[in-house]
Amino acid sequence: MREWSELFVTGREAPAAEDGENGGDERKRGFFGRLRENMTKTRQALGAELQATMFERLDDEAFERLEEALIYADVGARTTASIVERLESEAGSGALETGEDLTRRLRELLAETATVDNDTIDLRHSPAVILVVGVNGTGKTTSIGKIAWHLQRELGLSVLLGAGDTFRAAAGEQLEVWAERAGCDIVRGAEGSDPASVVFDTVEAGVARGVDVVICDTAGRLHTQQHLMQELAKVRKVIERKIPDAPHETLLTIDATTGQNGLRQAMLFRDVTDVNGIVLTKLDGTAKGGIALAIARELRLPVKLIGIGEGIEDLRPFDPDDFASAILEDDPKDSAAMPDRSREA
Amino acid sequence: MFDTLSDRLQEALGDVRSRGKLTEDDVNKAMRQVRLALLEADVNFKVVKEFTAAVRARALGAEVLESLNPGQQVVKIVSDELTQLMGGSGRDLVFARGGPTVILMAGLQGSGKTTACGKLARHLREEKSLDVAVAACDLQRPAAVDQLVKVGSQAGAAVYEQGTSRSPVDVAEWALGQAKADRRDVLIIDTAGRLHVDEALMSELSEVKKRTKPHNVLLVVDAMTGQDAVNVAEAFAGATAFDGAVLSKLDGDARGGAALSVKALTGKPILYASTGEKLDAFERFHPDRMAQRILGMGDVMTLIEKAESKMDERQAAELERKIKKNQFTLDDFLDQLKQVRSMGPLQGLLKMIPGVGQQLGGLQVDDRELDRLQAIITSMTPEERANPKIIDGSRRRRIARGSGTSVQAVSQLVKQFAQMQKMMRQLAKGQMPDLQGLAGGR
Ligand SMILES: Nc1nc2c(ncn2[C@@H]2O[C@H](COP(=O)(O)OP(=O)(O)OP(=O)(O)O)[C@@H](O)[C@H]2O)c(=O)[nH]1
Ligand SMILES: Nc1nc2c(ncn2[C@@H]2O[C@H](COP(=O)(O)OP(=O)(O)O)[C@@H](O)[C@H]2O)c(=O)[nH]1
Ligand SMILES: [Mg+2]
Ligand SMILES: [Mg+2]
Question: In this predicted complex, what is the ipTM?
Fold first, then answer.
């Protein structure tokens, strides 16, 4: 598992609060409670140990099953073919001998494919500005709430949210609830007002108040809607006018249930908004989010965060090895294993 | 990379024509392409396997018809089979006799339930003059109640809500009582998004169903869903025995193979297509068109219908004559532009043209772009509009100045217009148009 301080580069020491030293018992209990819960969740979302027996022999059937597993995980035909071909040639040259070899090597290859350079988020700016973009309903607003909460809690940073979705009904109210839960401030505009001006106001307020991180929400849009994509380009320009090298991070949310269209989403959002990382949401279901592998392989865009639930704590730094194991896991979420799903009201 | 299936099959079977019959080898080659196309369209792996087996059997030994080339022949078989699988046993909404008709909406988080509630409410009011109410039973997502209040009132529906302090089951039951007391024709119940593996929430949904006895349970499925669609559909079928599905976000460029998976594995029909964020972007689902779309063959039927409904016959005949005779001018183009604008958002229209949805690439298609095109064309002389070939460098500069655009924009329009003429000629001859040029080179 990756640590928060490995994902976010802050240039400071992580706050001591995290190890529970200067909290009381209450804090300690909270920490261990969370740790235990995290571990259940992570096992859930990222798969338990892969059985070494996934492939009993190294034969045609093993390769068929392998292909099937990758297709079912939404890895896509092309990326699947490239992985299968590579393994077949390694098997052909005698580098792989047993089913166990195949399993191990496959997992390595998947993790390798998921690993892309520049997979950290640099927050060494004041303020650092993060813009969150993506297709409708993929989890932008929720992820923003979670990120804000974790940045404050894990890294002791102050956060300001900007309600850049002025289009969808009650989007501002939704982010407002998240700001409250995360315990941070929010800048809002009227429904139907210009998103660029709300974002500008937010960045300006962030500078004036001296916060560490500004995170801006945007309305969901399909990558095929050119005028809406241009609107995003304008939002970026407006931010840049206030802080020349901002936004410092543009995160694209991809829903793990998305199929091959995810690649198009990533491509077109990258072209217009310079996306530098993916938040892969809704990994708590049975979908494996394999399209992220195709995105990593073809577009060199790394997944940085994963969403594993609707609660504020349900966000994790992405870890390629865990992800690779999860893709190969058979059917991880038999319902009996579902934890108590009490969520905040 | 997003070649149409027809193109691929053309390539795979290019040399078969002379033989007059498809051999086993030909069919195997073709089936590999079909399989790939379906997987890229997110059709479930298992469905793909069964489907290609069925098509294979039919294609083996099939005569290569005089009128079709071998590639088209296979496309036709695939398309027939797909249409059959997609359609059939169609069911409409069921309406109650006396008392409100109850419709329960269910689905994963973010699939488009709340929006679909508003759209369906509007649809039933406008098309059937029914008195509709919606009930806010998503008490989970922050501000979901506010969202439905807004969407519902935009749709002209009454909104029944009790905040978030009671349980969704109680609110649903209360809303039903309200709907009866107010003598509404229809009650649409919005629910929280939930994962199909979330036992607690799935049984909550069954409970809502038990208490409100809906006449219709609709599953809202995102058209971009991948292989997981069947897990979702099967689990929701188990918990709610839903009656039909709404396929959302079809305004994008997803091929929508999930539709086929859901239909094939649960047998439940797709009833409606949701095609945008605005409330009027909602229509009846057409299985045959979806089959074409999954194959990447575009939605020619819808396009033709839309065009027909906006254009009187005389105009249509005139246009057809011009296209056939290659007399389609920029003036006609301008008329078309104006008509297109009255037909709805351009993006939605363009993606119905075969292949275009996937290949829009560099082509500018947003509605503001139309204003620009219009400005450019109106800055041309009648001569230039009739014969764009005469537009040289100095004319370009003049037109650019006149329309407040750039020389590049003018050149691009002229170039695109030439390509469009070519495409129209092909369409008029009943061929699949060559869209390579339009794609702006990728
Ligand atoms: N199970 C699960 N649900 C999630 C996750 N992330 C977000 N959601 C849910 O998905 C739905 C959509 O999330 P939002 O955060 O509103 O998505 P959005 O991208 O802001 O949506 P729009 O602004 O409407 O385009 C909500 O019901 C969220 O609770 C996740 O990791 N797991
Ligand atoms: N482009 C597009 N967006 C849609 C469509 N249906 C819903 N949406 C958007 O998808 C997001 C989630 O929709 P919502 O109705 O809130 O989903 P719910 O969580 O299932 O209730 C919102 O941003 C909607 O505006 C559609 O057909 N096309
Ligand atoms: Mg949002
Ligand atoms: Mg909703």
Answer: 0.87
